Amino acid sequence: MRFAALVAGVCLGLAWLGPSRADSDLEHLLASVRAAGGAPYAYHVRARLSEIDDGIPQQHDLELEQARRFLQDCQGLACRGLFTDGRRSFETDSNGTAEPSGDSPSLFDASLQAVLLEEFADPEFRTQGGSVVMLEPFERSGSTYPRLRVSPRLGSPVDVTLDPHTYLVTSVEDR
Fold first, then answer.
1. Are residues 61 and 84 in the same domain?
2. Mean of pLDDT values over 87-93
3. Residue 51 included in any domain
4. Portion of the chain with pLDDT greater than 90, in percent
């Protein structure tokens, strides 16, 4: 009888320590986001827009990789840019020379980047100091939209809404 009581107590204790239903739901949702988006946080993303404005060639470059971001605008041969590593910002010139910027990177920009690259869905995101919490979903046109509060280690909390059919991000709100 004492053995049965001991076993029951151990089982109840282990059940209490196991993952909760909310943790399981969150893990399933994040796995769906990773599957839908192809884990863009794992890549060095580059984009370039080239155009001609009033006869002057324009080029706009954007590079994203984890917390690092580089933006550069060129008009003809004159370029200026901004690089941030998540903690510090640097202004760049046409030669690519970096000078420290007096501006600190925006906490919202860091959060927005973590959401756009779907970094919040990476299993390493939370072990590296970020947090993801499920919020109450909302209903629209008969569909239930999952919502998350995402807080990157170097950012501010943002609320993220996901499409219930594709699991892609539909909106980001600053908190």
1. yes
2. 84
3. yes
4. 37
Q: How many domains does the chain have?
A: 2
Q: Dump the DSSP string for 90-151.
A: EEE-TT--EEE-SSPPPHHHHHHHHHHTTGGGSHHHHHTT-EEEEEEEEEETTEEEEEEEEE
- Are residues 96 and 125 located together in one domain of the fold? no
Q: Which domain holds residue 77?
A: 45-106
Of the candidates 131, 135, 170, 137, the residue with the CA atom closest to the CA atom of residue 154 = 131
- Look at the block and give the residue holding tokens 């890549």: 43
pTM above 0.85, yes or no: no
Of residues 113 and 16, more confidently modeled: 113
Residue showing tokens 């990773």: 34
Same domain, 26 and 65: no
Q: What's the rounded Cα separation, in Å, for the pair 58 and 155?
A: 31
Q: Is there a contact between 93 and 83 (Cβ–Cβ < 8 Å)?
A: no
